[in-house]
């Protein structure tokens, strides 16, 4: 639950150092591209943070 507005949201955290390299290079970019294009009230918007 986000403290600012008391809303629930999902978080997916991927550790690039622990994820398989083929996932990071092939599947993750494709997943992010698809999710960014979706516009539906039951699908959250993507907020990407790169450390």
Automatic annotation (TrEMBL):
One of its GO terms (molecular function) is ATP binding. Residues 1-51 form the Protein kinase domain. InterPro entries: Kinase-like_dom_sf, Prot_kinase_dom. It comes from the Eukaryota. This is Protein kinase domain-containing protein.
């Amino acid at each position: 639950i986000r403290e600012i507005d008391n809303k629930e949201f999902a978080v997916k955290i991927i550790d690039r150092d622990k994820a398989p390299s083929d996932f990071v290079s092939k599947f993750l970019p494709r997943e992010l591209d698809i999710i960014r294009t979706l516009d539906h009230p039951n699908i959250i918007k993507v907020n990407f943070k790169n450390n």
